[in-house]
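User: Please predict the structure of the protein below. I'd like the answer in structure-token form so I can feed it into my own downstream comparison script.

Assistant: Understood. Taking the following sequence of 310 residues as input:
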Amino acid sequence: MKRLISVFLYVFFVAIVVISTGCSNAATASTSSTTSLSTTIPAQNLTSPMVTNFSPENGATGVPVNQSISVTFTLAMNPSSINTATFILMQGSMPVPGTVSYYGNTAIFTPQDDLSKDTDYSATIDIAIANMEGQHLQNGFTWTFTTGSIDTVDPYIVSTIPSFNSIFPVDPNNPFASNGNVPVNDSITAYFNEAMDPSTINASTFTVMQGTTPVAGTVKFDGYETAILTPTKMLSPNTAYIAMITTAVKCLGGNSLAQNFVWSFTTGLSQTTAPIVVSAVTANGVSGVPLNSSITAKFSEAIVSLRGLF
């Protein structure tokens, strides 16, 4: 019996040592720079800022040589921590000269010159980047992409909520995929076909009008392809509105919309229907999904983020 107790105490002591060592190593790792980099966004503590989007995607090919590189964070970050020392673009072992800017929650690396065609590049985010409270990213990470040729194609809007009349079919299961009877407490959302320049998406380029009267509101961008205008107060019931996104909006390649995008909708009453998921990637039941794939879901309307992104 004494031998069993001794063995138990020995095992318990070893377990405590292992746990303590692991915690010590984790604490040391969290204060180091980008000593261990990965090609996917690592799991992070919910109290720290995280990266939600980056463009181009990891492993992307045919990336336009005139495209900027973007990263979007969950929280407002300290702009002074985002610079060419913490947001780095490399061609092999050679750093690419450029400038770093910050808009909303999105950082943009703009190369000094067009990138080389058919060339591999890597972009790195360093843990020295911190939010306004001084909390750093817990892990740095690196992702790669390969260029193609120059981007000369204008971006376009693929869908909106409220919907617009187009060649795209309306999902009968989506109660908000119409431009009539729109809830007066709903936001107005536009989805682009590619990564957009966040510095061009704001209250002057994305507007809503009631007749000749502008609707006051705020415009936020997810850093990739979704722009949301949230009115300051509820819209008027049973009223016609016109939304517009101007040609001042540009993609990361510097191309503008071919023309102002204008659509109309009519309000109903307040929203009482719960939001739904209208599409997901990867789809239900799909097999053989790549290990480094992202899992995404698109909702029928703008969703309030637990991290305050929207």
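That's the full token string. The first helix runs from residue 2 to 30.
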